Amino acid sequence: SAAQKGGWDSYMDKEIHEDPKAVADTLLGRFGPEGELNLDELRIDPEDIRQVDKIIIVACGTASYAGMVAKYAIEHWVRIPVEVELAHEFRYRDPILTSRTLVVAISQSGETMDTLMALRHAREQGSRVLAICNTQGSTIPRESDAVLYTHAGPEIAVASTKAFVAQIVAAYLLGLYLAQVKGTLFRDEIHQTVDSLRAMPSKIEWVLDTQADTVERTASSLVDAKSFLFLGRHVGYPVAMEGALKLKEIAYTFTEGFAAGELKHGPIALVEPGEPIVVIVPSARGRGTLHKKVVSAIEEVKARGAFVIAVAEQGDPDAEEYADVVFWRPACPTLLSPLVDVVPLQLFALDMAKSKDLDVDKPRNLAKSVTVE
Ligand code: G6P
């Protein structure tokens, strides 16, 4: 009913607008009096945490892209290797698992059979499994050694939105906690990152408040496009993958997401005049190396007539100059940028689906949770 949708046209509308709350709520109650991370809820002995020498993240769909984002942050903070693998591939390739491997299973529903089978396999091999899950008491957390819940609230629309941002936050909390226990970051560095995380809900709010009109206009102008490419680098790469997935899931548009550096190794052959390409542009602050590379990717595709939609930091003069349309993000640390960059892409998929008059909450052929292998 309309009331259940909080006055929005669809659950997906409502849930995208709950992104800020999902981030804020997932941060709540996870800090001690000195601002230190307190994840006692994990009930893992800190000594066991110190022993962890490798993390393997297993997940499917949107949750796997949250895992890919987490890899960049956790490796940077904790200095241990993080692998990310689709749960259905993981089990069948004889992965190397030891008692010092921490397997992190990310799942909104907690019922995805592929992910469940992967975690069972990991436990059989003697590894510890930690679930990042949005559904209290579901099977995946029940069968895991530890659980860190995301507090996104129930997600009804089939295409995952608010759960994705909450999964990134939970994985980041885990990464910062590991860094705290292993001493790989200074206290000040952890505090700064936590402060930056706390500032994200209002930045997401800003995107929702100020960018929705541009996103909607862009979507209705591109409703007849046959395909879309999405590209990004570093944490922008999984964001591109997720943006592409959202659009295929609910607007039934053929999309491909890929790492911007791969452009010249293949996908550029697809670019013809008018091809819409969504580019996640990293910040130009700091050394800005990646920014330059992504801007030159935009120039490459523009030279071949592409229609470029950039997701870029407010005030980025290159995005303004080279892109046909810009979805702006407020400035934030690079590692946290996926939390804002995905928001216009969620809205974009929603608006495309609405322009095509599709059932955004119940796309054809898909299930909210896939409980078969
Ligand atoms: C299904 C859904 C996707 C979701 C994936 C993983 O395929 O349609 O939206 O990302 O499962 O679901 P989970 O509940 O494990 O996060």
TrEMBL record:
Biological processes, Gene Ontology terms: carbohydrate metabolic process; fructose 6-phosphate metabolic process; protein N-linked glycosylation; UDP-N-acetylglucosamine metabolic process
GO CC terms of this entry: cytosol
Any one GO molecular-function label of the UniProt entry: carbohydrate derivative binding
Residues at the active site: 368
Keywords: Aminotransferase, Cytoplasm, Glutamine amidotransferase, Repeat, Transferase
The protein's Enzyme Commission number: 2.6.1.16
Predominant location: cytoplasm
Subunit: Homodimer.
Reactions catalysed: D-fructose 6-phosphate + L-glutamine = D-glucosamine 6-phosphate + L-glutamate
Keyword set includes Cytoplasm: yes
Record's function text: Catalyzes the first step in hexosamine metabolism, converting fructose-6P into glucosamine-6P using glutamine as a nitrogen source.
Localization in the cell: Cytoplasm
Domain SIS residue range list: 45-184, 218-363
Gene: glmS
Signal peptide per UniProt: none
Name the record gives this protein: Glutamine--fructose-6-phosphate aminotransferase [isomerizing]
